[in-house]
Design a protein that fits this description.
The complex is a heterotetramer, with 2 copies of chain A (139 residues) and 2 copies of chain B (80 residues). Chain A contains 3 helices and 10 strands. With 139 residues, chain A is an alpha+beta fold. In chain B, a hairpin with a 2-residue loop joins strand 3 and strand 4. Chain B is globular, with a radius of gyration of 12 Å. The chains are: A alpha+beta (139), B alpha+beta (80). The interface between A and C is medium-sized, with 29 and 29 residues.
Chain lengths: 139, 80, 139, 80
């Protein structure tokens, strides 16, 4: 059971994240990479700005990682999240999960990103040509 | 008692800064602090929701606040 | 709709596979990496040997890729499979799927690896200390 | 008619090589070819299953075989 978490204001290194979960007992690794899209609901996005309550975000990420071990036979998980200003195509989040068998890797990885988006105190501001919006802030 | 709160995301913009100080009755709860924040910063009430972080955990409404707690206003998260 | 397929007897390059599916319209990439485990049902594995009916395998991989586009709103898929002798920890297969939203990327990637294992004419021999077995060949 | 078959995986070991030649009646089907193969190489009958590839497609039993077809014995696949 190996957990590795990171919040960084410099570009994320995909291979470094994946290497955290490789293991001789591992038969399948699922990796989710969240990237900055060029549009939201048809509107061109210039850039995103991510802000984190870092100490609490790491605690919530730790909880998610531990939950994956409770629910699935996984060997290792790494969760890396970027903060600061991101351009289109930049990587905002990487989650890698290693398991003996692929079903657990897929399901735990999906759970981790779904839950991260609900519980981890990180905020995203979308910047458009004509203004900016803190995502999900208003009904 | 005097408390210090951190504010993040849109809460930082609504409250005009990343930390704010407030005067709170002794033994106040997180629920009471939220009500006071909405009175003082009505735009917080217009958010989809907001939570309080007490010592880096999401606080239930009946959580007691003490001046030494690490407190934070947590608007709707949107990481990932 | 972008499809990239590869069967190679030299080590797979994870980043090259992932780079095939990055795109400004892409918000989520799911990557599955199949690696050689150190044991099968408790028995230590020395190495694996993969053999492919390459021309037909590429046709079947093309069908799988096209099916993901029929069933999910995905933007791109890359499927890379290794052949030859692989040691423990080596990468046997990489599947990367890019989509605007993560659900499609996860589901299409899972479908692609599940179907590849059922339909693509590639064979794996497990080599143990005391013998070798063509996987799945006998009831 | 004379046909050439490719053999892969365990079929290569059972048939003793990666290509084999067989004499087949004119207009024979894939199903008949399979039966003939099992007669000639009984260990093929002990496999979980095996299929024939005709021109790089899995063949239905009633597929007609012609001498110019690309034919292959496909034992249970196990890639990934």
């Amino acid at each position: 059971m190996k957990i590795q978490l990171k919040i960084s204001d410099t570009p994320l290194d995909l291979m470094a994240c994946i290497n955290q979960v490789t293991d001789p007992a591992c038969g399948g690794i699922d990796v989710f990479i969240g990237t900055v899209r060029d549009e939201t609901q048809g509107k061109p996005v210039l850039r995103l700005e991510f802000e984190a309550y870092e100490s609490m975000a790491l605690r919530e990420m730790q909880k998610i990682a531990e939950q994956t071990f409770e629910h699935w036979p996984v060997l290792s998980i790494a969760i890396h999240h970027r903060t600061g200003v991101l351009e289109v195509g930049d990587v905002a989040v990487v989650i890698a999960v290693g398991a003996a068998h692929r079903a657990a890797a897929f399901e735990a990885c999906r759970y981790a990103i779904d839950t991260l988006k609900l519980t981890v105190p990180i905020w995203k501001k979308e910047v458009f040509e004509d203004g900016e919006v803190w995502v999900a802030s208003h009904p | 008692m005097k408390i210090t709160l951190r504010a993040f995301g849109i809460a930082k913009e609504i409250c005009g800064g990343s930390t704010l100080e407030l005067e709170l009755p002794e033994h106040a709860t997180a629920g009471q602090l939220k009500q006071l924040l909405v009175l003082q910063y009505p735009r917080l009430g217009g958010l989809t929701s907001f939570l309080l972080g007490v010592n880096q955990e999401f606080a239930a409404p009946d959580t007691r606040i003490s001046p030494s707690d690490e407190l934070a206003i947590i608007p709707p998260v949107s990481g990932g």
